[in-house]
Write a structure and sequence with these properties.
Layout: E1 4-11, H1 15-26, E2 31-34, E3 48-49, H2 51-60, H3 63-67, E4 73-75, E5 77-81, E6 87-90, E7 103-105, H4 108-120, E8 125-128, E9 135-138, E10 143-147, E11 150-159, H5 166-172, E12 181-190, E13 200-204, E14 213-218, E15 223-231, H6 232-237, H7 242-252, H8 254-260, E16 264-265, E17 270-275, E18 284-285, E19 288-290, H9 306-326, H10 331-358, H11 362-374, H12 376-387, H13 398-406
The structure holds flavin-adenine dinucleotide.
Length: about 400
């Protein structure tokens, strides 16, 4: 096959790569988008699409199309279980900035395919499936990626190849840090006994997996996405294999086992990684940059990464427009992308990292949950913060933690 010359070659058609490709296409650039999978493909995930995702869809002009999709379950709130099994409900007042739903739970295969279907409509994007990128090289005037039987050349390479990114290792010699990633396990069930109207997400901060949590996210059609994430070096220290411990926790805790008694497990437990080394590492170089999981851009407490990755795709596209305008793809110029990502995420992620450190202690979480459920005013305040995007920043205020800790 012949070499092809593009403005940009994007490796990985997950939410980060697809978002970046769509923005670049809207700006008039010719893009090659390569993925080793054939779409629709499966992706191990909690399937939680938050307000960040809706915001990015709106930026792409795709929000209305998304809201018309059928197979998504609207969520109005959440239940948080402390390690001692006591819980606090946050219900009805949560909303995103577009409507009253807090978030949606939707199978990731379907969501990612929704974006890919939009890609297929764009003649300026050459979408190549079943194409595994094996090598990448940066030359003076172009970036080159190679796979079996084909070579793609472009002015710039965008690596959006996910949590086990080979391009991050090849281009930046990045070595994943086990202290800065979650190891996870996930499975689908049918018919778990619901709470309320199947419209609440549930998170259980089980002491065995702190600072991680076990989730139960209800999808449409009585399907439940059940999984857990635990920091990789904690899992190693406690000898907790996430795939094994997921089943063990469901049996061990009565309040869970009762609800799973009549449920049917419809997949095996599958594992996956969530890197959260955000803003601490280099994510660009001459003629290339990294997005989403490949750049470790996720939330270190919740593991949320879809909206964050899409946001990095949008930031990258705007930065690349500047590169094309000034004809500058040098390492120094590309660094402005790292700075733009840091400006967006650093503050939030730094404070979330403190929170991650604090929630390693079961007693701390028990106390917080107790304080919130005893104190109606505090409970209401948290619900209002969660409901209002502008007030949301308050959860990063140290005073907020003082209040929830001391009641
Ligand atoms: C168990 C689990 C639960 C999660 N739950 C949530 C959640 O509920 N909500 C949330 O927001 N986030 C969640 N996340 C995180 C979220 O899944 C990721 O942050 C998100 O998928 C990142 O998107 P991405 O486009 O960067 O990478 P990906 O979605 O991983 O896409 C990468 C793409 O690159 C392709 N690729 C990889 N290597 C190559 C190659 N060599 N050549 C060509 N193509 C290649 C892959 O086929 C894939 O399509 C979860 C993660 C896990 C593991």
């Amino acid at each position: 096959m012949q070499d092809r010359l593009f403005d940009a070659v994007v490796v990985g058609a997950g939410p980060s790569g697809a978002t970046c490709a769509l923005h670049l296409e809207q700006m008039g650039y010719k893009v090659a988008l390569l993925d080793k999978a054939s779409f629709p493909r499966e992706k191990i995930c909690g399937d939680g699409l938050t307000g960040h995702v809706l915001f990015e869809l709106n930026e792409l002009g795709l929000l209305d199309d998304f809201l018309r999709l059928e197979k998504k379950n609207a969520i109005v709130g959440g239940r948080m279980y402390a390690p001692n099994g006591k819980y606090v409900d946050f219900r009805d007042v949560l909303g995103n900035q577009f409507n009253n739903d807090f978030c949606y739970i939707m199978n990731r295969g379907l969501f990612d395919n929704f974006l890919v279907e939009k890609i297929r409509e764009k003649y300026r994007i050459q979408f190549v499936e079943n194409f595994k990128v094996e090598e990448a090289a940066i030359e003076k005037d172009c970036a080159i990626v190679k796979g079996k039987n084909a070579v793609f050349k472009a002015s710039v390479l965008i690596a959006a190849d996910g949590a086990s990114s080979i391009l991050s290792r090849r281009l930046l010699k990045y070595k994943p840090d086990r202290g800065k990633m979650f190891v996870t396990a996930q499975a689908y069930y049918r018919g778990v006994e619901p709470i309320y109207e199947n419209d609440m997400v549930e998170a259980f901060c089980a002491r065995e997996i702190l600072p991680g949590y076990l989730w139960i996210f209800p999808e449409s059609d009585n399907i439940f996405n059940v999984g857990l994430g635990v920091v990789a070096d904690v899992a190693r220290k406690k000898k907790n294999n996430p795939v094994k411990i997921l089943d063990e926790l469901i049996v061990k805790y009565d309040f869970l086992s009762k609800r799973f008694a009549g449920a049917e497990k419809i997949t095996n437990n599958r594992g996956g990684l969530i890197p959260f080394d955000t803003c601490k590492r280099k994510i660009s170089g001459e003629r290339f940059l990294l997005l989403g999981d490949a750049a470790s851009i996720t939330n270190p407490v919740t593991g949320e990464g879809i909206g964050y990755g899409m946001n990095s795709g949008r930031i990258a596209a705007h930065h690349l427009k500047n590169c094309f305008d000034s004809k500058d793809f040098s390492t120094a110029y590309m660094k402005q992308y790292d700075q733009a990502v840091a400006a967006k995420f650093r503050k939030i992620l730094k404070r979330t990292m403190y929170l991650q450190k604090a929630i390693r202690f079961p007693g701390f979480i028990n106390r917080i949950a107790g304080n919130i459920s005893k104190n109606e005013k505090l409970h209401g305040k948290i619900e209002r913060i969660l409901a209002d995007r502008k007030k949301y920043q308050e959860i990063y205020n140290p005073l907020f933690y003082y209040r929830i800790f001391f009641g």
